[in-house]
Amino acid sequence: MHWQTQIPKIKNTDSGNFFLIAGPCAIEGEQMAFDIAGKIQEICSRLAIPYIFKGSYRKANRSRKDSFTGIGDEKSLDILKRVGQTFDLPVTTDIHTEPEAALAAASVDILQIPAFLCRQTSLLTAAALTGKIVNIKKGQFVSPESMRFAMEKVEDEGNSKVILTERGTTFGYQDLVVDFRGIPAMQSFGATVVLDCTHSLQQPNQSSGVTGGRPALISSIARAGIAVGADGLFIETHPDPATAKSDGANMLPLQNLEELLERLVAIRAAIR
Fold first, then answer.
1. CA-to-CA distance for 96 and 101, rounded, in angstroms?
2. At what angle do helices 98-105 and 73-87 cross, to 10 degrees?
């Protein structure tokens, strides 16, 4: 997929920069979504980075039953739609079941397939049939080379608009590791490849039932990803990760994003 021409409303595509998918893990409310989108758009406009706003309208894959799942599907999807309209930005969210594909497609530009569901044929088919761009996260249990088949499931429905996202591979029970060879491996069969810099640093299966993380390494993971040629980066960010309702342990504080992106743009320029 030539992302520069396929993503609606994407800006700065002639800058030569990587593109950025960024926003909160989950939509917690209207004001926070608008505040985060506005701040990131301001930074990306200055640095000429193509930007896509991300927010989950529902969190379906939780360790514990009492974990936060969302503020309501209709409300969250409406917020996502209005973020896109207000800031003239492309917007993405994740889906988990076949009926959600058409539901979410009415409000967003890109449908994200969670890593645990990357082999779910019926879900990939439903996402493909919406005609939207489909971003498939590589399962923690799947090799980069095997993601060719997930990509083909979307393409076989006549939809060539596919992104693949690297988000780490299971290492033991409670850690993930990024094999950066996976980025060129997936690019070798024509995929646009994104590196998820925050979920790659998760520490799942904690005894507390709340996923941990190592956010201090986000900058290291991001810099390495740009150095090996990732087409885009995925970064979840929040004004105060300690109070975030989902995945706070591995999100980047919003106030740290600008400095990080400045460094990444410099690396991108150097390798070009």
1. 8
2. 40
**Structural Rg of the chain based on CA atoms:** 17
* 111 φ/ψ angles, rounded to the nearest 5 degrees: -100, 125
Q: Are 134 and 161 in contact (CB under 8 A)?
A: yes
Residue 207: the pLDDT is 47
- CB count within 10 Å of CB 266 equals 11
Long-range contacts of 35-41 (CB under 8 A, 24+ apart): 35/239, 36/237, 36/238, 36/239, 36/254, 37/83, 37/86, 37/87, 37/89, 38/87, 39/254, 39/257, 40/237, 40/254, 40/257, 41/87, 41/89
Q: How many domains does the chain have?
A: 1
Higher pLDDT, 131 or 207: 131
Q: Are 68 and 35 contacting, i.e. CB atoms less than 8 angstroms apart?
A: no
- Alpha-carbon span 112 to 101, nearest angstrom: 10
What pTM did the predictor assign? 0.92
> Which domain CATH number covers 82?
3.20.20.70
Does residue 231 contact residue 3 with C-beta atoms inside 8 Å? yes
Residue 177 belongs to domain spanning: 19-271
Residue given tokens 């489909």 in the structure block:
134
Residue 14 in any domain: the answer is no
Using left for φ > 0, alpha for ψ between -120 and 50, and beta otherwise, residue 72 falls in left
Higher pLDDT: 96 or 63? It is 96
Amino acid at 248: G
Q: Please report where in the chains the tokens 């076989």 appear, as a residue.
A: 156
At 202 the pLDDT is: 59
Does the residue 2 lie in any domain? Answer: no
